[in-house]
Amino acid sequence: MVKKIFGIIFLAICLNGCASMNWWGGWGSNSVTVSKGDTLYSISRRYGVPIKDMINANRLSPPYTLYVGQRLKLPTKQYHTVKRGESLYGISRLYNVDITTLSKINNLQTPYALSVGQRLLLPASVSSNPAPAQTASASSNKTAPVAAKAATTAVSSASTQSYTPPTSNRKTKFIWPVRGTVISGFGNLGSGRKNDGINIKAPLGTAVQSADSGTVAYAGSELKGFGNLILIKHTDGWITAYAHNDKLLVRKGQKVARGEKIATVGSTGSVTTPQLHFEVRAGKKAVNPRSYLP
Fold this sequence. Notes:
Elements: H1 2-16, E1 31-33, H2 40-47, H3 51-58, E2 71-73, E3 79-81, H4 88-94, H5 99-105, E4 119-121, H6 146-156, E5 181-184, E6 187-190, E7 193-195, E8 198-201, E9 207-209, E10 214-220, E11 228-233, E12 238-248, E13 255-256, E14 261-265, E15 275-282, E16 285-287
Antiparallel strand pairs: 1-2, 3-4, 5-8, 6-7, 8-15, 9-14, 10-11, 10-13, 11-12, 12-14, 12-15, 15-16
């Protein structure tokens, strides 16, 4: 019984942890026949396929019992062939895949140099057809701006306030949302990458404070790569963004005071080290947070 419980717990960990990386190696066929002693975990390890994808492909249900002779489907490999002008970031956006995951499964190192004709293995469970509204061109080779994607939502969803155009110059400084070490600054990072904010390293669980009073326009984790995210719209039309949080302590529509605890530092999204990604925006335009902090 203990062994069985341990197996279920381990499987749950893989489903919620290991499989969230959503990457796998290679295999030779599209199916496998279960042999004596096989488990879902052992097969996933043998063929380098995430357990979650094995379950989805075969429509398995807990406790995921297998029987000798059972045929299991293996997810089909998918590739993208690099075209002229494409970048790793552009390709990740094309398939709605996190750039960190894409680089890991293809053993790519910064600065992620690609060559025309190179085949990139795509993570499991992605669509084989790239998004029609996007192109993986060099012009899209920049870090996805957190608040740019949700700036319209940040303005319209704060239903308790009418829209206020951002002032061109902010007289009041924001306060630091968290005390720590700035590990990534604003602007160009090299190799076509850009940071629309700053990243502040701090211990896991450290309090994250609202940089100024305002209304929570967004609190959730739908924006891929940024984990638990909060957007706050301030009364002068400016917006601040707080990403990679561990716990969110506020909800959409809630009014917050300057310095109020809104979250705790985490490593959600595409980062592995506890840190806060902090952005300051005059409407949709990203500005250097350091210019507006004491």
